[in-house]
Amino acid sequence: MIEALFYTLSVVSIISALLVVFSKNPVHSVLYLIITFFSIAGQYILLNAQFLFIVQLIVYSGAIMVLFLFVLMLLNLNKESEPQKNTLFKMAGVMIGCLLFISMIALLKGADRIAMPAAYDSQIGLVSNLGKVLFSNYVVPFEISSILFLSGMIGAVMIGKKESTDIN
Amino acid sequence: MELNNINEVESVIKVIPIEYYIGLCSLLFSIGVMGVLLRRNAIILLMCVELMLNSVNLLFAAFSAYRSDPNGQIFVFFIMVVAAAEVAVGLAILVMMYRNTKSVDVSLLDKLKK
Prior knowledge:
heterodimer, A: mainly alpha, B: mainly alpha, Helix Hairpins, 4 helices, elongated
């Protein structure tokens, strides 16, 4: 049962990731990316990481994807007008992707030699447990991330607002 | 908090080896890199960066679950925080780029080369 779920989610995420890259229409790419994010959220459930599941759904499938779709509609880019790279560059891109995959597999082959703990705690991904860790060991990074959000928000507004003087 | 023996837990840890997660995440990451190299639409480039971040997040969560160490999942949370801020700023830059060049083709942004 768990194996079947794992393989189904993996195949769905890989196929939709490929469709993100290769679909011509940007709106279709965004929709396939949402499918990829949902299947990755399913993997989090399989790993019993419930907090990450909820955060993935809210942040990625909710906020980030709405932002992408909103910008896509705002700029009126939902048409297949993208100029294509020439065939040599495309071949090189695919080759580099395949080589990267092969080398990563070869590099990470020894990961099974990492000592796994004998005792196993299936409850680490629950919200209460992660909350305790976050607010006892990681309070300072948590507060700093709020500063990051504030500066990101100010930066987005500053960059995105219409310039009063024409720079051209 | 009670610790269970790994043999008694009916979960993904028992039936799926960690190498499968490594393979899946490497494949997703490579697809993201391939997308960045192949496409010229800046929005698709940002989406491929999101794909790569997600594959790394999944690998972090997998190792965290297999080693029953919550620090990895906290790290995933911080990666998501940075990704959300990055997307907001990136899309603002993209809107500004569209306003100036009337296109989101990244190959038009080669003024520094000339």
